[in-house]
């Protein structure tokens, strides 16, 4: 706010602000130090008011005394004060020796004779109220200063303000030129000062600075030799740059891809270039809030053609103005009260809409538009310049945006968007929770399957070993009783039968144990198969739900876009050009950094070239690239649709031109005049 500087980098702005807040600044006029930049400016402003106004007759003498003086500030101020006290000037108030009354206050009216001692002055004697009593002619010796007109402290700010350097004191070039004071150093200062690029320098300070710089250079040279002697490992390595950075700081690198040449945007607008911004703003507002305005949407081309059309009462223009004026009228504000005082008709129609428009222009009271009221009242609105038409519509939109109806609608949109965002966020959290549960269940089932298989193997092996042990034991028992059995076979048949029964029972128990182990293993396998089937079914369900999730996401995006608050640009490139995309038109518009130039891209190839020309190492172009990639499919689809419509329109125009003059079509049948066929089907009754 003090320096009027404009920054393109936020970090540079912060560094400059911190510099201005440091207490390193000095007031130029008063000499006060240890101030911030803001305090120094305020001090200079107040000190300048206290600088004495030296009469023009004495200004040249005071400045000559200052120029190339080697005195200190104190001694120089005393010297100037003494000289000014010796010299009298017209208008000076001092005391004179009056013959009758002694010393009396007087004011010098005229200098009669020039000289040092013999000069005479015509003075006016003053009373206590400083009123003129009489006039007289006195000598210089009869006039005395009771108080010096200029003190040392009052002359110090004057000296600082008049010079740009001290020791020697040198006046500003403009001030020296104004009072015709020489800017060449005198002979007694030869060898002490010199002039370089029109600025006076002190030779001693310059020599000291040269010595200091040479010392620094020698020191750097010695340090460089020591570093080379120590080795190359001590050399400081450059830190790699962390991208993205500011686009203007990005330098071409070896790892950069081959960037494509950025295409030049088309600029074939029908309205003047400085009106394109207003054209887009008004059209976007009418398209975004068409339901609130009860205005059937129309294309940007039709709106542009209607604005440039010189005919009167074009339906599209009439309905646009009427819908905006109708909303202002319903708001019951200043416009409503003004309309009531003029007893206008209740409804805005094709015949009286210009009366309401003239009332609005008179209320806003803008000079550029007020001069066109008589033209509008005569029914010649169509002959107005496109700049005036769009300016009136711009002011209408600005007034409508301030109405309570629009503000309530915007507040409603904000609440609905918040609900949609909250619902979307809740569904995303729920989906994430279910996904985590499925992953945990899957990990658990995998671990259970491994454990069940391992336990089944252990059970089977143990059972096999147990069965073999029984056989071995039985064989051992048979071997032990072998002699007894064979020896007692003919004599003891009962014992033989008992032993055979025991052998049969042991075999049966072994078979049962084997069957139990096999059944357990089969049950474990059945459990793992069931879990695997459940997982497969879940995967099928997720695949089926995937399309529904996409549909749900598209639904949220569609509903949020319906409740649009305002249109934001896609981003900026390295030169701060803004890129706009309106989904109802399809083209991508380019706005220059100063908003004076506009253009547009109207085909997929131009969008691809633009994407290939963006450097992701820059902050602005990386953000722009992400936004274009996000809407790329929709932009291409709208552009293809637009190109097809354009091809059909050209074909129709050629068909109309091929007709003979006897069956020539009416102007409304020409596709170029499609805006003349506009009918507002949403018009409020």
A few lines on this structure:
The protein is α+β, with helices and mostly antiparallel strands.
Describe this structure in words.
By secondary structure, the chain is an alpha+beta fold. It contains 22 helices and 13 strands. The strands form 4 sheets. Strands 4-3-2-1-5 form a 5-stranded antiparallel beta sheet, with no helix packed on it. Strands 10-11-12-13 form a 4-stranded antiparallel beta sheet. The chain has a two-stranded antiparallel ribbon with strand order 6-7. Helix 4 crosses helix 5 (152-162). The longest helix is centred in the middle third of the chain and has 77 residues, at 404-480. The two termini are 52 Å apart. Mean pLDDT is 77; it is low at 231-236 and 462-500.
For the structure shown, list the relevant keywords.
single chain; 685 residues; alpha+beta; five-stranded antiparallel β-sheet; four-stranded antiparallel β-sheet; 56% helix; 9% strand; elongated; DDT domain-containing protein; WSTF_Acf1_Cbp146; DDT_dom; nucleus; DDT_domain
Measured as a percent range, the helix fraction is 55-70%
In whole angstroms, the N-to-C terminal distance is 52 Å
Quick one: biggest sheet?
A: 5 strands, antiparallel
- Count the E strands: 13
* Sheet with most strands: strand arrangement: 4-3-2-1-5
What's the total helix number? 22
> What is the global morphology?
elongated
Overall structural class, as computed from helix and strand content, comes to: alpha+beta
Mean pLDDT: 77
Strand content: 5-15%
The Rg value, from CA coordinates, equals: 50 Å
Low-confidence stretches: 231-236, 462-500
């Amino acid at each position: 706010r003090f320096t009027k500087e404009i920054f393109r980098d936020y970090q540079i702005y912060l560094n400059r602000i911190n510099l201005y807040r440091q207490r390193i600044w000095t007031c130029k006029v008063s000499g006060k130090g240890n101030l911030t930049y803001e305090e120094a400016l305020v001090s200079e402003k107040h000190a300048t008011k206290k600088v004495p106004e030296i009469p023009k007759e004495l200004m040249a003498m005071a400045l000559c005394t200052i120029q190339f003086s080697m005195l200190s500030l104190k001694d120089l101020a005393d010297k100037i004060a003494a000289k000014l006290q010796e010299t009298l000037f017209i208008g000076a108030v001092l005391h004179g020796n009056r013959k009758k009354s002694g010393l009396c206050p007087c004011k010098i009216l005229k200098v009669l004779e020039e000289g040092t001692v013999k000069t005479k002055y015509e003075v006016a004697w003053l009373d206590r109220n400083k009123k003129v009593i009489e006039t007289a002619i006195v000598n210089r010796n009869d006039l005395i200063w009771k108080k010096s007109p200029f003190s040392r402290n009052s002359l110090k700010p004057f000296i600082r303000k008049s010079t740009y350097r001290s020791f020697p004191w040198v006046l500003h070039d403009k001030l020296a030129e104004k009072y015709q004071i020489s800017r060449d150093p005198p002979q007694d200062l030869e060898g002490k000062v010199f002039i370089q690029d029109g600025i006076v320098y002190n030779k001693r300070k310059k020599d000291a600075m040269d010595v200091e710089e040479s010392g620094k250079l020698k020191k750097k040279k010695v340090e460089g030799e020591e570093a080379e002697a120590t080795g190359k490992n001590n050399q400081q390595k450059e830190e790699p740059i962390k991208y993205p950075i500011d686009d203007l700081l990005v330098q071409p690198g070896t790892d950069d891809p081959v960037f494509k040449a950025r295409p030049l945007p088309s600029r074939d607008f029908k309205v003047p270039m400085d009106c394109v911004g207003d054209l887009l703003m008004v059209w976007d507002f009418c398209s975004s809030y068409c339901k609130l305005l009860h205005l059937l949407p129309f294309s940007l081309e039709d709106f542009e053609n209607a604005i440039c059309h010189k005919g009167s009462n074009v339906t599209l223009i009439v309905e646009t103005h009427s819908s905006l004026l109708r909303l202002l009228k319903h708001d019951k504000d200043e416009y409503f009260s003004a309309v009531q005082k003029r007893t206008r008709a209740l409804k805005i129609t094709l015949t009286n809409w210009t009366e309401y428009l003239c009332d609005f222009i008179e209320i806003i009271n803008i000079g550029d538009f007020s001069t066109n009221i008589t033209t509008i009242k005569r029914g010649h609105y169509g002959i107005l310049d496109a700049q005036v038409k769009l300016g009136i519509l711009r002011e209408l939109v600005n007034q409508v945006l301030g109405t309570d109806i629009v503000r309530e609608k915007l507040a409603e949109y904000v609440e609905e968007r918040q609900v949609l965002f909250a619902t979307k966020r809740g569904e995303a959290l729920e989906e994430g929770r279910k996904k985590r549960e499925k992953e945990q269940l899957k990990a658990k089932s995998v671990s259970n399957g491994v454990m069940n298989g391992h336990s089944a193997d252990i059970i089977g092996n143990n059972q096999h070993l147990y069965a073999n042990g029984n056989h071995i034991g039985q064989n051992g028992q048979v071997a032990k009783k072998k002699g007894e059995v064979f020896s007692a076979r003919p004599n003891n048949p009962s014992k033989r039968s008992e032993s055979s029964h025991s052998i049969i029972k042991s075999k049966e128990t072994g078979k049962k144990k084997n069957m139990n182990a096999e059944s357990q293993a089969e049950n474990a396998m059945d459990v793992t198969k069931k879990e695997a089937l459940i997982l497969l079914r879940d995967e099928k369900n997720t695949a089926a739900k995937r399309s529904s999730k996409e549909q749900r996401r598209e639904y949220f995006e569609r509903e949020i876009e319906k409740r649009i608050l305002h249109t934001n640009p896609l981003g900026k490139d390295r030169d701060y050009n803004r890129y706009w995309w309106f989904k109802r038109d399809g083209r991508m518009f380019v706005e220059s950094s100063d908003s004076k130039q506009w253009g547009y891209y109207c085909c997929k190839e131009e969008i691809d070239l633009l994407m290939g020309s963006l450097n992701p190492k820059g902050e602005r172009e990386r953000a722009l690239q992400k936004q274009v990639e996000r809407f790329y499919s929709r932009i291409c689809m709208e552009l293809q649709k637009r190109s097809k419509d354009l091809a059909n329109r050209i074909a129709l125009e050629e068909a109309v031109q091929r007709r003979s003059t006897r069956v020539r079509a009416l102007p409304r049948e020409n596709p170029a005049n499609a805006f003349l066929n506009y009918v507002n089907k949403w018009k409020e009754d």
